[in-house]
Amino acid sequence: MPSGRKLYTRYLGWIFVIPGLALYTVVVLGPSVATVRYAFFDWSGLGKPQWVGFKNFVDIVLHDWVFRIGLVNNIKYLIIFLTVPMILGVTLAYITTLVRRGVAVYSTIFFLPVVIASVVTARIWAWIYHPFFGVTGALKDISWLQWLTQFSLGNPDYALYTIAFADLWHWWGFMFVIYHGALRQIDVQLYEAARIEGASTWQLFFKISLPLLRPTIVFLYLLQMIWCFMTFDYVYIMTRGGPGHASELATTWIYDQAFIQFEAGYACALTIYLTLICVVFVVLYLYLKRRGWESY
Amino acid sequence: MGKKKLIAIGIVVVLGIALGSFTSASAKKVTLVWWTEYHAARIYDAIRETIEKPFEIANPDVDLKVEYFPDYDRILRTALVAEAGPDIIDLHGPSYAIEYVDANMLLLLDEYAEKFGWKEKIFPWAIACSMYKGHLTSLPVHYETMLLWYNRTMFEEKGWNLATDWDSFVSLCEKQDAAGVIPLTYGSVDFVIANSWMTSIFFSCIAGPENVKRVLTGEMKWTEEPFKKAIEKYRFLWQKGWISEKQSAALALDDSWGLWQDKRAAMKFEGTWALQNVFDFSKGFDWDWAPIPQLEPGVVPPVIMGIGSNIALNAKTEHPDQAATFLDFLFSDPKRAGRIMDAARGEFWVPIKLSKADFPPEFDERMIRCFEYMGEGMASGNIGYCTWTFWPPKTDAFQYQNLDSVVLDRMSIEDYLASSQEIFEQELAEGRVPTLP
Q1: Cβ-contact B42, B345 below 8 angstroms
Q2: Which residue of A31, B73, B100, B215 has the fewest C-beta atoms within 10 A of its own C-beta?
Q3: For B77, which of A45, A132, A153 is closest by C-beta distance?
Q4: How far apart (Å, rounded) are the C-alpha atoms in residues B349 and B375?
């Protein structure tokens, strides 16, 4: 029989864990389980839910063309955010490590947009893009810059990219800071040894920095993939998914179904599909980790 | 017992009786909570001065608390799901009430309607569309119509005349466009439901009110020619760039008023609620309104009627009688209704019989004309239908959500109307189409 002291030691950890676990159960786990449950019901969010089995899931696949548009737009967003901020972040982070003076100034400037609330940034950019009162509106009168006016929130061909540009402006500094921190962890002796062997600056980057950054890159790619499918704020604030669903994302459509169309059960089913997509990314990450891609 | 002791006991007894009376009086005082969707300062102040205070004076046993919230819909829904919430609820119109009624969250008002004679006090068409599955579920507290607002000073300066038919309307838009003025200012990015203003106008004025009534009763299909023509004409105007230079989906409602204030736009299709903004956004020039011109030969432009706001009782209210008394208070005094209409300006147009004498002397002449125009429409029976009042909710939602797709050629008119028909058939079968007058 364990002594009182041993019991105390064994269960002490639970005393600290239980409050957080209770909060997690109520705020996260409970609603998650409820979401799965209500996905099988026809429920407006108000009255009694009615069992419909897999009808919501089938309707989404067969009839919901807006959700398909949303998923395609999410994939476009993913391609943009897996390339531009990653390349920009790692390149500028590397260049900054070569700079002797003013590193803190550059880091601050690059990171500053990140600390501004996304709601504020989205509103500011919506005004910049305003077709009559913003910068875009002013460009209409300058003939050699008029081509830029097609990148407006009212143009269905470019609305999504216009929003993505604003989101990139806000977000790429975060990548920069993460990569910058990771680069500073690399042993400088590796660089010195390579320089002695005659390696150029870009050879140092491609042969030493990038391979050693691989764990960070893989992890950030995973997070970016999940975040791209969770993006909501910029689109909701700037276009609400318009014009004509051109910038609709899966999340904005889910919000519309749940809170505007009184289709809470249907929205739960949409959320399940979105979750499954994110699970695919996590499985991919775990597979790569097993293959050793995360380590060097 | 000494004299002093007797006096002391007497004082204590008197105080005790007084305190007891006060306590029992306080205990009898009922608190009614009214959640209103109106949050503009002008309307809120109007409610306090013309409704809250007079009601409390007339009903000293009731304490009325008027509350409003930003993000009103979400908070109301959460409260009602939690079986809490206020006694008295504002909703955005009869169509919006349907979901709450189906969830048994609203108190049916049939008994109170009989007790207070609401069906005699309130316009019959307004009562009719507040009925759902044979029951009175809410009361219409604000009625409205769609109008053409125009910059009168600009029209006079440029020598433009108001259009009387489709051809003259197109010609007017061409002239305005040539003069560098946006013919119609409009924005919907922050309120895509505003697209239902356009569907209301174009369906009623081009397909015609008779056909609209027939399609809403299932006698016609949405895919038929009159409705196709209605959307074609709207698309024509939009693709010409005469509606916010094809940027309506990138403009907010306030932006459209900004163009109006800057004199960059000449006209606006909007409802009577525009009175809230038109005074403030017309600094330096004069404005006026006109009926929607005849947009289709053979279709006499109807007076398009709608209920912008309705008021209901929470099914869980502990004071249904007092709450119903409050509802009746709103509809019982034409002069009070006139004062509210003047103060709220474009909102809270209570659908009861009023005469010019019921309005305060300072009531704007243009608002009086508007009120008379609506009265004439109701008297003649040539009324059109606002979608947020007379359409079933999902059909209305599909049409306003996808109107931009049609004008942007991302969806064909045929597909738009075919999907409308499919959704409408389901709602008709479920009995979710509001009662037509």
Answers
A1: yes
A2: A31
A3: A45
A4: 12
Cβ-defined contact of B251 to A131 (cutoff 8 Å):
yes
Amino acid identity for residue A110 in this structure = F
Dist CA A99 CA A105 (whole Å): 11
Q: Which residues contact B399 (CB under 8 A, 6 or more apart)?
A: B195, B196, B199, B387, B391, B416, B420
Q: What is the pLDDT of residues A155-192, one digit of tens each?
A: 999 999 999 999 999 999 999 999 999 999 998 899 89
Cα–Cα distances (Å) from B177 to A125, B237, B344, in that order, read 29, 12, 35
Assess contact for B400 and B195: CB atoms under 8 A. yes
Decide if A137 contacts A130 (C-beta within 8 A): yes
* Cα–Cα nearest to B123, from B417, B392, B381, B403: B381
Substitution target in B251, B256, B402 with the highest count of A β-carbons within 10 Å is B251
Residue B34 phi/psi, 5-degree rounding, is: -120, 115
Quick: pLDDT tens for B174-228: 999 999 999 999 999 999 999 999 999 999 999 999 999 999 999 999 999 999 9
CA distance B276 to B184: 19
Enter the ipTM: 0.87
Contact A47 B255 (CB under 8 A): no
Residue A295, pLDDT above cutoff 70: no
Judge: B402–A130 Cβ closer than 8 Å, yes or no: no
- pTM equals 0.89
d(CA B373, CA B368): 9
